[in-house]
Amino acid sequence: MAIVLDPISPVAFSVFGLDIRWYALAYIAAFVVGYFVFKYLISRRDGMFALDKKQLDDLLTAVILGVIIGGRLGYVLFYNLPFFLSHPLEILAVWHGGMSFHGGLIGVICAVFLFSHKCKINPWAVLDVMSVVAPIGLFFGRIANFINMEVMGRPTDSAFGVVFVGETPIPRHPSPLYEAATEGILLFIIMFCLYRFTNLRNRPGALGGIMGMSYAVFRMFCEQFRAPDVQIGFLTTWGLTMGQLLSAIMFFAGACIFAFAMRKK
Questions:
Q1: Predicted local confidence at residue 19, as pLDDT
Q2: Taking a C-beta distance cutoff of 8 angstroms, is the pair 254, 212 a contact?
Q3: Which of helix, strand or coil describes residue 203?
Q4: H-run or E-run covering 150
Q5: How far apart are CA 135 and CA 252, in angstroms?
Q6: pLDDT at 265
């Protein structure tokens, strides 16, 4: 028996005629909560570096730009390039949806390296702390995906199937909730425990590598339930999706970074 839900309006509320969308609120919540968790982690004496208030604000600004620019360009390049080549102005229309985690990750890495070079600190140490914070953003983002009925799952006969009233009557896996639970909650618990209760934080890059591998595993697992993007479909006859391909590359990159961090003295 499927779970029947009324669709939730993508607009949370309006202020003076301006629509405030759940997607925007998810990003704001992710940045605010992530900021304070990041600040808490580096304020401890076991941290590898310290930042003053201005540096924290500069890093937050750099990360926000990295997420938005990288996430949007990643979606354009990886998921829908022919459309955007025909409609280049749509690249700027981020309110129409379309963000790529893998692209956002690349954007954050670039932003952190530029920031770290300016502040003369180890960028891998900064990325290790960011790897603890990142699942928070993933959690809020996936909840917003579910509210917007985006990236929903494949048809299912299981009790977890969801049907939105007025939409397709076919029950589908609520794959954004699966990703919120694994890539968000579970991954945050894993990364937080590794940071707090192991010495891996003393190996700059190790935690970032683990985060990359762990996210890739969770994402590839959840892609088994998530419907492929309509404009791409499956990349192979045996069901490989773009998300799985990018995650496989991410797993290999994370493994290389982890190996390098563990070997480096």
A1: 85
A2: yes
A3: coil
A4: none
A5: 19
A6: 63
Q: Which residues face 162 on adjacent strands? A: 3, 172
Query: CA distances (Å), 206 to each of 114, 203, 252, in order?
Result: 20, 6, 14
Contact 135, 151 (CB under 8 A): no
Taking alpha carbons only, the member of 107, 106, 191, 181 closest to residue 145 is 181
* Residue 205, token pair as written in the block: 């890059």
Angle at 70 between CA 186 and CA 60, to 5 degrees: 70
Using alpha carbons, list the distances in angstroms from residue 189 to 4, 81, 145, 195: 31, 36, 22, 10
Q: How many CB atoms lie within 10 A of CB 70?
A: 23
For residues 171 and 249, give the distance between their C-alpha atoms in angstroms, rounded to a whole number: 32
Each domain of the chain, given as residue ranges in start order, spans 3-263
The predicted pLDDT at position 45 comes to 62
Handedness of CA 114, 118, 119, 120 (dihedral sign): positive
Residue 255: partners with Cβ closer than 8 Å, 6 or more residues away = 209, 212, 213
Cβ proximity of 7 and 149 under 8 Å: yes
Q: Are strands 11-15 and 3-5 parallel, antiparallel or unpaired?
A: unpaired
Quote the pLDDT of residue 137.
93
Averaged pLDDT, groups of 10, the chain, 265 residues long: 84 85 90 93 76 91 93 89 87 78 92 94 94 95 90 88 86 94 97 93 94 96 90 86 93 96 81
**Rounded distance, CA 57 to CA 35, Å?**
9
pTM as predicted: 0.90
Q: Compute CA distances 82 → 27, 88, 134, 151, whole Å.
A: 27, 10, 30, 20
